[in-house]
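Q: Make up one entry.
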Amino acid sequence: MSLWSRAFSVEELDDRTWLELMPWLDRYGSARTAALTALAPTPAWWESQSPAQTAAETRIPELCAELSRIYVTDHPELRFADGLIRTVEVVVDALDLGMSAATIVARLPHAPTTAELFSRSPADLFDVRGADSDAVYEIVCAALVLTVLRDPATLVPEESAAPVPALALLVDDLAAVARWQTLCGQRDRPLLSVGLGAGAPEEIQEAVARIGAVAARDLPVGVPADPVAELADYVASLPAAERETLRRRIHDEGDVDVSQPSTFPFGTAAGDFLAVLRTDVRPVASFDRIVRDRPVLAQVVPGLDAPLWKVLDRLDDRCTVADGWIAVPDLAEAQKQTRALLGEFESANAVVQPAEVTAIWHLPADEFESWLTHCGATMFDGRILTPQDTVAGRAAQILEVVGDPLSVETLVARMDANIDIHSVVEELSDDDRFTVTEDDGLWGLLEWETDPVTAVGRRIARLVDGAAGSIELDKVAEALVQRFSISDASARIFAASGDFEVVDECVRRRRRTHVPALPPERTKRLYRLDEHWRLRIPVTRDHMRGAEVPLPSAVAGIVGCDPGAEKVLKSRLGPQILRWTGPIPHLASVRRYLDEIGIDEYGELFFEFRSDGRFDVLPLRTFASNADPLRKALALIGYTTPEVVPEEGIAAAFATAIGLTGETRPRRILSAYRARHEAEVVSLLESAWVRIPSGQDRPRS
C-alpha cells in the first residue's frame, strides 16, 4: 500500500485522537491555532477527532502534508519519537518516498527501518548532506501518515523502489542539467567534475577523466522546441472566444484585464526559451541587440498577430520590454539591481569608476552609459555620480573626481546647477567631510589629509582611465610626486598595488571577475546587532517565485565565502546556499522562509547572517505612522523589539549598527547615515534630532 496513492479507509486509520497520537499538537500553542483550525471543518478537530473520523471530511495525506510544514517550522528540534506515538518499526522503503527524500533517509546510519528515522528531528534531517526543504517536508509527512495508521505493519515496499536511491537521483539530476545545458547551447560542456588528490593510480585517473568527459550531448536530450510553433498550436486549440480574449490582451484592446500576472512554466518551449533569455538579459539589455542575437523574438505568432517578444511581454510578467530595453523581471527591478551593483564599487562619496563596473558587467559601452542615464546616474569627467539628496553630497563627488581643492565659485560652476553660493558655503561648513583653507578659501575633502592612500589610488585611476586603460609607469610616478609630495619609490609602489598592477613598465587595472569585497560598515541597509548582521531588503515577485537573491559582497565576507566559492549556511529551515561564482554573491531561493513568515511582495524583511555560518529570515517590525521616529528607525536597522532599547542607549545602538562603536553624538551619527545614503533612516533621525532655527536644518550635538 502506498502512502500517497489513495485515500485511507476508516479501517486503516487509528481511532485514538490526533492529540494522543501526536503530542506535539498540544505544544503548538494558542497563538497559531488558526492555522490548525483551517485544515479540517470540525473546530479543534485535533482534540476531538481521531484520524478515522477526520478522514470522512478531509484527505489524510494532504492534511499530514500541511501538518508537516507546521511541525518543521514550529518544532524543528523535536525528535519524532518525542512528538509522535509510534513504536512499530517499518522498513523505510515502505514509506514510498521520492528519490531525493529516500536518499536523505538512506544516508542516516542504520537506516533500514524507521527506528533510526524516529530518533531524529527535522533539524537533524536538514543537516544530512544534500538535504533540501521539499525532501524534508516529505519525510516528515511520511512519519505523520505512518503515525495515524492503525496497523503500519501492513505497509510493504513498492516493487519499483530503487535499490540505491542516490544513484537513481543522480541519473535524474544529470538528465535535468543536460537538458538545461542543451537549452543554453552548451551541449559539449562537462556535466561532472571530480577532484582527485595526488598519487591516485592510473586506473582511477582514467576513470575520473571519463567522468569529466560526460556532456549533455551524450544523453538522450532533444533539441529545444520552437516557442512560436508551440504557441501557435496552443492558440489554435482554444475556442474562438478565448482566442480573441487572448489576442486583445496582447494588443491592449478594450476592457480586457492585462494586469493579471502569468508565467510560461519551465518545460514548455516558451518557458524554456524565456528561461534562457533571462540568463542573457539579467537584469537589462538593449531590446534591439537582443532581437538581433535571437531573431525568433521578431517572428509573428500565428493566431495572435503579434511578434513573440510582445506575446512574452504581455503574457509573462518575468520579462518586460519598455523604452527600448528588455529587462528581467521589469525595469524597476533592473534599476534596483543596477544601483546595488554600483553600490559595490562606489566610493564613500558615491562616485563610481566605470571601468571597474564594465569589467564584470559586459554591456556595450554606449548601452552601458544609456542605461545609467535611464537610472538617474550622471557622468562627470569620466566618472559615474550616483544621485544625491543634498548639495553637499554632490559637492563631495565633484571634489573627489577633480582631485584638487576648488573655490566655492568654481565648485558651484562645476556642479552645473542654479544654487546660491552663500547657502552652499553654509552647508559645506556644516558637513564633516569638507575642509577650507583660510588664506585662499579653497574647499577640499578631509579624507585627502586623513586617508592619503585612497586619494593616491583615485589619482592613479584617473590617469589610467584617461589613457584608455594603460599608461607609462614613469608618467604615473611623476604625477603622484607632484600632487602628493611623496617619493618616487613610494609612487611606484602605489602604482603596483591595490587595484593596479605594472606590466611591461605600464600601469593598468588588475583584472577582475568579481566585485570588490566591501566592509560591512560601508554597505547600505546592512546593520550590526550584537554578534550578527542584518540586511534589509524589499521583497520582489522574483523572490516569491524562488529566484536567487543578489547580495552585497560584504555579506559574503561576513560568512567567509570567497569569490569563486560557495558556502552552505545553517538555518532553522535547512541548508541555505550562498554562491559567489559570478560577479556578485547570490543567495539561493528564500521562498520557503517567505511562506513561513507570511510576507508578501512589496514588503520588507531582514536576512540575518552570523559569523558562525547561521542564517535566518525575519520580518520588518512595523509601527503606526505617529509612533516615536527613533523607535521606527530602530526597526529599520534590524531591531525586532525596538521598544525595549533604553532611551540612553538609542544613539549608541544607531552608531554600533554601522561601525561607529562608542559614538553617541547625534550629529556624527546622522552624518554617517547620510554618507551611507540611508534616506529612510535619515528622515526619521532628522525628525527626532534636528531643530530648525533660522530656516536651516541643524542637528543637535
Residues 692-701 have pLDDT under 50 and may be disordered. The chain has 34 helices and 24 strands. Residues 81 and 118 are 5 Å apart (CA to CA).
